[in-house]
Amino acid sequence: MSLRDLAPEYVRAIAPYQPGKPIGELAREMGLNPDDIVKLASNENPLGISPKAKAALEREIAELARYPDGNGFDLKAAVAKKYNVGMDQIVLGNGSNDILELVSHAFLTSADAAVYSQYSFAVYALATQAVGATRIEVPAVEYGHDLAAMRAAITPNTKVVWIANPNNPTGTLARPGDLVEFLESCPAHVLVVLDEAYTEYLAPEKRPDTLGWLKRFPNIIVVRTFSKAYGLAGLRVGFALTSPEVADILNRVRQPFNVNSLAQAAASAALDDVAFLEESRRVNDAGMKQLTDAFVRLGLPFIPSYGNFVTFHCGDAAALNQFLLKRGVIVRPIAGYGMPDSLRVSIGTEAENARFIAALEEALQD
Ligand SMILES: *Cc1c(COP(=O)(O)O)cnc(C)c1O
Question: Which residues belong to any copy of the Aminotransferase class I/classII large domain (predicted)?
Fold first, then answer.
């Protein structure tokens, strides 16, 4: 007998999440100077962290011998104030990935099912599979969620629907009217996770009023993160906004100290840094134009994106990826998403984008 066999079949079948290649790893593999490497692979904020968050971190270091506040009072108070929700509607997570896991652990068993879209965020399948629940993957339309088909795919034992809006890795955005129609038609026994990791990158008039919808739909779980526009990916902090009943259940399966004290302090400070968020969005809009103009000029089709990344079609993506890596440019292969002819590139600073474009041009001339 192998010790592997002690794990349930559904755990042994898990294909681990493939993260973007770390800069240090590429430097070691190719003998490159880490400072010459441009990483556009994990939708990180190219501006770094907000100065307010940095100051909060420096203050918090003195307190590191103590456990974090397991209830995250200050961060929850800041979130409650900013979004006009009750403290009892907030669940904090070690990244929003943790929130997705909490939903699975709290609500799904091997007798249940969860619905998600083809080409949607890989963690939905992983979190569903980790508890042995049935995965119902619904074909996408034009790389986005087919909400009518997803509604039709809901079975009596479906307890969770995962929706990323904007979606990663395709960058598509669902129409608010279609989302409301979906929520109205959803049976009451289904929880709908609205994962809005990129919402801060949307122009304000494009953001669906998901927090407004919470009053009408207690079964929705709005998920947000500090990893993207807030620039705190390395600290791991995200949160859910939902009804008090659902929040109470999620908090029962949470580790007592799942969000560390540095993360709590930095996130509280970052929430208030409106100037940093606006600058992040401005740089992203400019970079999106820079990259998509280049794709048009080079004749590479791309999926119009509402996030801080864009997926483009390039034929042999594995070969192009290797070419870019040799030139110190890390982008994200998405063959694991069933898109072997495409690559996803995150929006960087103007100079980083230019490095990527120059390497791409060189590859196409080869
Ligand atoms: C990046 C991302 C997340 C996870 O981010 P965390 O770092 O775990 O907060 C969640 N959902 C989507 C769609 C993402 O792209």
Answer: 36-360
Q: What is the side-by-side strand order in the sheet with 332-333?
A: 302-303, 309-313, 342-346, 332-333
Q: Residues 281, 267: one domain?
A: no
Q: Which of 163, 167, 168 to mutate to test the pocket of ligand 1 (most atoms within 8 A of CB)?
A: 168
Nearest CA to 50 out of 299, 274, 281 is that of 274
Same domain membership, residue 292 and residue 177: no
**Does 23 map to a domain?**
yes
Task: Please give the Cα distance from 220 to 61 (Å, whole number).
Answer: 36
Let me know whether 205 and 183 are in one domain. Answer: yes
For the Cβ of 97 lying below 6 angstroms from any atom of ligand 1, the answer is yes
Range of the domain at 194: 65-271
CATH number of the domain to which 233 belongs = 3.40.640.10
Say what the pTM is.
0.96
CA-236 nearest atom, ligand 1: 7
What separation in Å is there between the alpha carbon of 97 and the centre of ligand 1? 6
Q: Which of 184, 178, 155, 153 is nearest to 165 (CA)?
A: 178
Q: Is residue 89 part of a domain?
A: yes
Residues of the chain with pLDDT under 50: none
The pLDDT value given to residue 1:
81
Choosing from 44, 123, 239 the residue with most ligand 1 atoms within 8 A of its CB, the one to mutate for a pocket test is 123
Ligand 1 atom 1, closest CA = 197
Which of 251, 271, 291 terminates a domain? The answer is 271
What is the pLDDT, as a whole number, of residue 19?
85
What pLDDT sits at residue 366? 72
Residue nearest to atom 14 of ligand 1 (CA): 197
